[in-house]
Amino acid sequence: ITVLDPQSVTPGFPDGFIAFSEDSLELFMSAYLKGTFRNYFTDHCEIRNTIEIPENSLVCFSNATIKIYGNFRVTGGTLIFHNCTLTLKESNDSFIQSTKEESTIIFFFFLIDLRHHGSLLSLTDGLVTMKKVHLCGSSVHPALLLKNASFEVADCEFRSCHTPENGAAFHILGGSGQIFHCNFFDCEAKNGGAIHTTTETIILNCVFYLCKAVDYGAAIFYQGEVRSNINHCQFYDCYPEKEEVVQVLSHPKQFLIDKEYHICHSTIIESPVTVTELGILIVQNATVYLKQPIHCSGVLNIKNASFLATDFTERDMIVFHRAKTCNVSYSKFDGNN
Asked: Which of 110, 115, 240, 235 has its CA nearest to residue 185?
């Protein structure tokens, strides 16, 4: 690490912190960050190559303006950005990468302009916390790719995130976490215009504007069953229309309904659905993509719904086996040839 004035040490930080205050602080990343020391950087910074942050190390950027030409590789340490502005200057798939469970990454009061050069974070295991972050212009990959990670995101805004993959702002594979009070504007992806996630994610009080998906889920694609974990969200001018949230019902053998069950979100049914004599299936205000048929021996109520066969190999979309009742109104069925 090359520092223009290592004598400039800011007092008042905990023991072990080295603080630099320079108008033009240049970091040449051919050097490694090793050992157990802690590093604090402020003012104007340029990341030229790669910083590796190993276990027991902490790197903090605070009140800094950062230009990224290289990247960070977090291998068990802690990386913190506080009250910073960051600009990605060259193409970079993910300029922060982490593959170790002990890694911790924190963003707090952070403005990030990726300028469509790449994405922000690829995290496997580990922990990420984001609060009051404004991120714009991610491309190539999802802005945040999280695999088996823990995460908490609150009061953030994601704008103009685009990817040919799934989930322009978040692609979440396993793990668990929360996304609260966030805004998503003009996000576009293959499935899940803004968010592609699994069953351990809670999404509350978020707003989605002009989000688009090429296939399914204009705003959110949920690989599982949506319950109260997605709630109090608002959607404006998202496309496909009336498919802002898409859930996936998939079970190894069959999805068994033996009590009252409601489908009120657009749904992809990937396994056979059986409504028993005691079951009641209510489908209302939703689009249902059938990859497997529905077998009904109980009650089936359908209102303001659309059923579309897709990748369908059976003859009939819905099969009745001495069903008790079937009520259908203001709905459409398309066998899709």
From this structure: 235
Report whether 67 contacts 91 (CB < 8 A): no
Cα–Cα distance between 328 and 114 in angstroms, integer? 49
Task: Give bridge partners of residue 259 from the DSSP assignment.
Answer: none
* SS3 of residue 190 by DSSP: coil
Q: Which residues, other chains included, contact 17 with Cβ-Cβ below 8 Å and sequence gap of 6+?
A: 38, 39, 40, 60
User: pLDDT digits over 54-96, tens only?
Assistant: 888 888 888 889 988 888 899 888 899 989 999 888 776 778 8
Q: What predicted TM-score, i.e. pTM, was given to this entire model?
A: 0.84
pLDDT in tens, 240-286: 988 999 999 888 888 999 999 999 999 999 999 999 999 999 999 99
For 101-118, the DSSP string reads: TT-EEEEEEEEEE-TTSE
Which pLDDT does position 329 carry in this prediction?
Answer: 95
End-to-end CA distance of the chain: 64
Cβ contacts of 283 within 8 Å, gap of 6 or more: 262, 263, 300, 301, 302, 303, 305
The residue among 24, 68, 64 whose CA lies nearest residue 43 is 64
Beta bridge partners of 314: none
